[in-house]
Structures are given as C-alpha cells and as structure tokens.
Fold each of these.
Amino acid sequence: MTTTTPMATLAPPAPRFTDLLAAEWIKLRSLRSTYWALGTGALAVIAFNANAARVDAADFPRFNGQMRDHIGQLALRDAFSDGSALMLILAVASVGAITIVGEYSTGLVRTTFAAVPDRRALMAAKVTLVTAVMTVYGALVAGASFASTQAILDTRDVGVPLSYPGALRVIAASALLAPVCALAGMALGAVIRHSATTMVATTAVLLLIPSFITDRYQWTAAVRHAQPINAWTRLADIAFGHDPFTLVPPHPATVTGAWITFAAWAAVSAVVAVVAVDRRDV
C-alpha cells in the first residue's frame, strides 16, 4: 500500500512594480480616447501658436521702432501662447482623469483590485506612468511649437534660437504644464469617480476659477499665484517687469514661486490620487 503526500498550493508571487507599470501602459494605450485627446490637443496647440506667429510675421513691416525692439519677447510669446496653454490643459487633464474614472465607470476597477490587492502600489504605478507619458508629450508639443513658430518668424528674420535668453524657460514651463495638470485631473477623478462631473470640475478648478481671482489684495494674489495656469503665465512671461505694454501688478508673482507651485500641485495631486483610491470602497 502506498501513501500520497498532498502537494502544497503555492501562492502566486506578488506583481513587481515593473509589472504594474507594464499593465498600466497597456491600459493607457488601449484607450482610444487617449489618442484622440492627445492627438487633437497637440495639433490644436501647434496650429494655434503657428497662426499667432504667422499674424506677427505678416504685421511686422507695420511695427514701430519700440515694438521691433521687443520682437524677441514677442517671438517667445508666439512660441506658446495663452490660448494654446488652455487647450493643452484641457487635453492632458481629461486624459489624466480618464485613467481613473474610466476604470470605475466600466467596472474594470474590481478586476484590477482583485488581481492587485495592494492599491497604493497600483496607484503609484499609474501616477508614475502618467507623469512620464505627459512629460514626454509636453516636451514634444512645446518643442514642436517653438520650432514651427520660429521658422515662420524667420521668414522676416525675427525668429529667436533656443539659446535666446528665456527660451528654455518657456519651453520647460510649457512642457511641465502637461504632467502637472494631468495629475490634477487624476486626483479629481479619484475623488469624484464620475466622468461628466470630473470633467466639469477639472475645467472649473484649472481654468475657470483662476480667471476670477484678482491680484488686487495680497491674499487674493497669493491664491492666484498658487494656480498652475497663473504659474505658467509668470514663467512664460520673459519680459515681466520690463514690458512697456503691460503694467506690473501690485503683488507680483516670482519665478521661484511659480516653479514651487508646479511642484506642489504635482506632489499633492499624486498623494490625493493614491490615498483616495486606497481608503475608499469600490
């Protein structure tokens, strides 16, 4: 008579962080809305800036001497205009929100949490992936906008090179605006979880509310300067304080404060996204 020893059931190994990154990358690139939002957003931003450069190149023969003295600053404004920044924010914040809201709306989140019970590791991978993708996306869009606008202005010999004072700061600020606002969209999506409400809230928080905050008083100016779009405006305004066509506000923002605003929004948004998903039930 022989006896058999029951085989012990081995628990599957916990997924590594690289495995979570790979899984999140597959989910992100499988969403058709990702391509539409980022593709149309990039084309709109580049076209909007190129049109601003085209208009300035056409009007250049009618510029007076004072305007021609500041043509370098005008060329940097055309490289990434205010309107294109608004379009970029809408595109990247929507994609950031969809990475979380999409899973809740389809019910995929239950399968995801069953496969990966460690929600904090899962959300850390999602935050890392979105930050990396949006940073590359922002750099490509800002670089393409700068190259196309300066090429158009060069038809009048008034384009500026990358080594022009302030050019790298404009490109860096415009590129980093993408991951900062995408993370803000993720945080709002993690808290709200409903697609339509999240999109409305994202637009209100990142675009509408900052436009209603004045810099007349010191405390309102502090709140205004703490908004991503206003921080980007300060970083992209190379002629701040030296532009004869623009008044300096009573409580001006600083370049250092604008960079800190970018870092604070990214860090706080990442923490809110991780904690909100980890602490709340599905």
Amino acid sequence: MSASSTSGAAYWKANIRLVTIHLIVWALVSYGFGIILRPVLSGIPIGGTDLGFWFAQQGSMFVFIAQIFIYAAQMNKLDRLHDVHED
C-alpha cells in the first residue's frame, strides 16, 4: 500500500467520523430533544415557551445551521491536515 493511498484512507476515515458525529448530533437534537425527550424538557422555559417545543419548532433548525458552519470549518482543517486543500 502506497503512502498516498494510506493518507487517502486516513482522510476518508476522518471524514466519515466527522459525518457520523454530525448525524448523531442532528438525530439527538431533532428526534431526541424535539420528539422523544419533549415531555421531559417541557418544564424548562425558554423565550416564552418550553424547551421541548423550542427544539421541535426552531431549535433543531438553528442547531442544523450551526452544524453546517462547524462541519465546513472542520473539513477545511482536515483538508489542510491531509494537504488536499484548494487554496
């Protein structure tokens, strides 16, 4: 196995790990906090409503948008680490 294929495999493995983590966070926030744990979070007030409703209606969207920027930054860092960046 050559050095470039080993580096490519490491890059791909790190990329898949990042995607997996972000999917777990997305599922936890949208399904976990918004649906499954909603009764538990209903007693916590935030912005005039309860936390479970907030996650179900807009919190999961805010978290998803934040994840996009965080993932982009993490991928830029990963690209530089494996010397596959574009700039």
Amino acid sequence: MSRLSARTLSSLSASLESGELSSREIVADCLERIESSDDLLGAFSEVRAEAALRAADEADRERSAGEVRSALHGLPIAIKGILASPEFETTCGSRILKGFRAPYEATVLRKLREAGMIVVGSTNMDEFAMGSSCENSAYGPTRNPWNTDCVPGGSSGGSAAAVAARQVPATLGSDTGGSIRQPAALCGVVGIKPTYGRVSRYGLVAFASSLDQIGTFSHSVEDSALLLETICGHDPKDATSVPREVPRFSAGLDGSVEGLRIGIPEELFSEEGIDPEVLLKVREAVSTLESMGAKTVPVSLPHSEFGIATYYLICTAEASSNLSRYDGVKFGFRAESDQLDEMYRRTRSEGFGAEVKRRIILGTYVLSAGYYDAYYRKAQQVRTLIRRDFARAFEVCDVLASPATPGPAWPLGERTADPLQMYMSDIFTVTLNLAGLPGIALPCGFTASGLPVGFQLLGRALDEQTLLRIGDAFQRQTDWHKAVPSGDSE
C-alpha cells in the first residue's frame, strides 16, 4: 500500500500547507490505489481520473498564488452515486437511471467545489439506497476490504469500502435508516449522520424524504469535523434545511470528556440478538470513556422495539411516492413499446431491481384506502413516541451509546433470500432517523476472525459538536481507526 493513501485529510492538509506534497501527488496516489484495487472491491461506479488530475494542477497553481480556499483545498474525496451532478452519472445503483447526468449540482457538491476539494469519482450503492449490504446495486456488489468474501454493509457500502481500503481519505454517503453508520461499523471507519436539516438535501435523490440525510466517511473524527464544517449550513433550496449557524466543529476537539454523561439504554445492550464479541467490544469502548472521566447513566428507550416495523412502514410509503417519477419519460432508461401503458410497465419492470419493487409494493399497500390508518398513521404515532423516548433520555445525559450493528460483516449472499433478516441488521440505527437526531459510528475493535466492530454515539438535535468531541477523545486513547486491511498502520 502506498504511503499517501493511508493518511488522514488533516495530515495531508498539513503537508500541502508546508509544501511537502502537491495536490497532484496526492490525487495521483489515490487514482493509482483505485486502479489497483477496485476490480476486486467494486467500491466505485465511476472514476474521472483526467479531470481529477487537471483539478489537482489547478489547486496547486492556486495554492502557489496564495489563493487557499480552505484547509481541504486540493484534497481528494469521492461521493455516493445518489448525489446529482452534471459531471458524474447519477445512477443511484439502478438500471433505470443508467446514463443519467443531472442538469444541476447538489448543494453539497457545490460546497465541496467552493472549498477546493477534488471529487475523483462516485461510489457504488444499494439501488436507491435500499439495502443493508451493498449487494442490491444493478452494477454488481461491493466487497468488504477486511474480508472480500463479506459485505461492506449498505446502502453506502461503496463509500465505506473506499475509505477502509484507503482508496480515498474521505467520502460522502447518505443515511436513511443507518446507511452511513452501519457500513462504517462493518468496514472499520468513522461515519457520521448529522441532524436532519443540518446538511442540505438539495440534489440528494430522494428515497424517504423525512428520513434521508447526507453525511461523511473518514479515517478520523478530526476529518469528520473538517468535512462537516464544509457541507453543513442553511440552504434556501431545501425547505427542510435548518437556518442555524454552523459551529467550527474542529475547534471544539479538546480531547476531554470529563464530566460528560453517557446514557446506556438498557434495551440496546440486551444480550439477546447481539453477537457476544460485538457486545464485549462496545462495553469495552464505554469503559474506556469512563476511565477518561465520563459518567454513565442508565436510561430507557421503551419504544425502540418498534423501530424496525415503524421505519419500514414509513420509508416504504415515502419511497412508493418518490419513485413514481421514474416512468421512462423524464429520466434514464426507457423500454421501447408502441403503447404508453406498456412502456410504463416494461420500463419499471426492467429498470427496477427486486428490493426496490418489494418496497414500492409494500409502500403502496400501506398508503392505500382502507389500510392508511391501520399502518401509516399508526407508524407516525409510534414515531412520535420514539422521539419522546429520546427527549426523556437526554434530560439526564448528554449522549447515548449503543452498538452500531448486532454483528460483524456477513458473507456475500447469506441474507439476500431473507429480507427480514437483512432488515434486522439496522435495528440499532433506524430509531435515530425516525427522531431526526445525529449519530456517529466509531471503530472499537475486531472480532477473532479479524472483522471490524463499531459502536455508535447518539446526540441531541444540532449537537454534533458533543459527538465529535467524545469521538475524538476516544480516538486519542485508542488506535482502532489506524488499522488498515493489509495490516499496515499509518
């Protein structure tokens, strides 16, 4: 493995600032790493090497002229293939959008460009962000860099695998029910889902509009803070965007957790249904934080047991509405037919994959006359109860801790025939999306078979700062985030 591809954004930024490295050297190193490893991993759906190198040369010219836009100016990043861009195909992992290039740019991409970051490519994903393993892409599965016979998690599996394999130092993903935190845990990297509304969703292709949120993958919490400073902020193009000032997150990383109260939800630490190795590593992580001065507080989230059912009723209902726009007329793939109805039917039958069809059918059913009150309305009522659970818990603590996943990465194909088993892999993440709160997944160890284990911290609305502060302090005491699949270290 090359030396540069294993370094953090903050480290590379310092080298650019000192003149030790050029942007071209860093970007070329990433492109070389992608070319040598992605035939096996399948983390990328598109790479624009020549354009990235031209952008790197321009960044070097600007830096030499003293035109430094940000600390991240000239550094490479990759984006999940669900963000609208005129430069990259926005396929969302689906055949129905093959060849589609958006006529506009997502707000987060504009912010990255204005900060001087260089987008080298787009990453593979479960079709329309529907999945927990990154096996549902129409363009083939992504593999876990720690064991290529295993899944990386989903739906942002390509983004997580690209960072874990040190192809790029950072990526963007999207999290509807845990699609950043779950693959981050299974791939041994840092993944953060900000508060709903903290990052503009303008240009994020909608799966479930009340749950979707853009977030980041990186090697370190410090890098996550730098990226969040870049992409957060109010956007008048997104009606759900929160008009709140964005803190300078990186300035609050002081290494201290003294006096902070960490809530331990009894329902999320039950031994039932959790791999014993995962539970042990998560408890050890909490003990580490206690040894650093944090206090643990027992709390209860009594309605968390209804999280999976509530989530899949709401997200499928919203998906059935959002995906109705793909009819072969306006976007991407169109099946040829002389009859309009036949063209619609064949386009959707041939364009959508099995998991997307399953969720559209389920969502249409729960919204249908006669069943709306029994399913969709009831799910929204339970969602309110889940939000109240979090509000009560945060009356006595600053953050909550929990496992990020019930087990480590599983073999490719093991759960594809059992959707319910697949859905249960998100059991520790979906309630946070229902409540619209921020969460971060952090590496905290490995199983005996060498697969990463992650734990998550859950925070109050708009309090990403506390999550980042605790996560950074944890990484100053541990080195799990420095391990790489090859066994090398930074």
Amino acid sequence: MKAFSFERVSSAQAAAARAAEVQGAKFIAGGTNLVDLMKLGIEAPTHLIDVSGLGLDRIEETGDGGLRIGAMVSNTALSADARIRRDYPVLTRAIAAGASGQLRNKATTGGNLLQRTRCPYFYDTAQACNKRVPGSGCSALTEGAFSRQLGVIGTSDACIATHPSDMAVAMRVLDATVETVTPTGLTRRIPLEEFHLLPGDTPERETALMPGELITAVTLPAPVGGSQRYHKVRDRASYAFALVSVALIRQADGSGRVALGGVAPRPWRLAAADAELPNGAQAVMARLFEGARPTEETQFKITLAERTLAALLLEE
C-alpha cells in the first residue's frame, strides 16, 4: 500500500470541497472495498477524507411517505430497520444475500453503490484492463479468457465487467434516487437508473458523480406494496457474488417490476420488460436481454435468469 495523508472534516460540503481541492483525494467510509483495492495497488489515493462522522447515519421519513437513508447507514442497520422490513422487503432480502455479517456491519449505503467490479482481470494487475488502465485493452475479451462471472448485456468492446452490488439491484426495482452534495455546496438528486454508467469507450467512468461530489443519502419513494422477492444464484451459497440475481415486485393484478444483477455493468431493468410481466418469465427476459452479447462462458446466464424469475413467480 502506498503512503497517503488522512483527515476528518466537519460537514458533507467541506468533504466535497476538499476532495475537489486535493488532487488524488478519495472519501473513505466503511472501507470494505477501497482498502482491499489499496492493498492490491489498484487504488492509490494520495489523501483520504473520512466521512464517517458527518451525521449521515440516520433513516428518516420523507414528506411523500418514503424514506431518506443516510449514506453512512450500515448495510446491517438498513436491512434490519422495521420500516424497510415492512414496506421494502426486497431491499432487506437483497442486503442479506450480500457479503458476510462482518462486512455488512461495516459496509455503508453510499459505499455499496460505489463498489468496483469483481472482474478477475480488473484485480490482476498483470492483465490488461481498460477500467483499471484506460486504453490498455480488455483481457476478459481475449480468446480463452475466463468470463463466467462477467456481463452479457450493456457491455462494450472495451469492457464486459458487471456491477457487483445486491443492494443496488433492489434499489433499482424500488426506483431509488441518489442524493449528493457538490464541491460548491449544491444538492443533486440522481435517479439510480442514471447513476451507474454503461462502459462504452470509457469504462473507467462508472458513475454520474462529478469530481469531488459526495453521496449523502439514498431516497426511496413511498412503498408500492405487492409481493417482493429477491433471489441470488451463485457458485457458493455461503459467500460469493451473483452469477444472476433477480429482484421482483409483483402486484395482485400480475403487473410489476423486475431488475437483474450479475449480468450487466449496472442493475439491469427496462420498462418494456416490466410491461411483459403478466406474460411470464420468458417474455420478460426476451425484452431484458435484447441485444445481449454473451461469451461462450456467459451464455448460460440468459437461461438462468429466466428460470430464476419463473421460480419466483411460482412462489406467489
């Protein structure tokens, strides 16, 4: 790990201003992903700004019947909150499916959205990776590469990595909004569907955040009711990232919403696919995977996603 300086600040705006001011600065909260990346030499911040003491650890009710979740609320506290368990059970189930209990105790709501991909070529600094070193190439797309964990939709010729979060998939199906503060003190609200960027030719740009911009909260709209499910399929039941995960909200009339994890660079949901839910899992997946470009090793994910959704629908 390379040497770095460290400071605590007194407000979210001060944190954002310092991050914009100091070249190479990064925020640190729970540190469950960033510290690992620093140890591996993938991240090398010159300065860390601790945002854990800024009072961003509360869950508050909003005027329209929703909830505002502070960016520092731990995954454990969020999944255990009585209002989340009652009104947004898909979120509780998704968080419980992610990581270990120890990690959930430290991981934060804001940090969870900013997790870096678990693509093996991103973590192996001897391999080419456009996300880690822009313009270096993508070893995952070379002949014989191991791509079982990687994406099938929303990818590009520069990157086929997936976003690893379970929590973000549930928040996508709930139409969450990310709240931020900019270095000049302005508040921005970014719909989650616009927060994570597709790789295109610039896979190193993963979110819509501007330099120095700090996540302060995530807002959930008023509860939509319905039956809410989350199922994650992985190689090891005890601890692994998703091969495929499915978040489902289904209303009594058969309508609803579906979001997928483990298949794309961001939680994957399309309005046209939601509209197909009354017609069954095959119709939904036909829409969700329109334009898919699987490798030989990831072709199975399309069938797996369809069968996972079909199983969830049978639980109703």
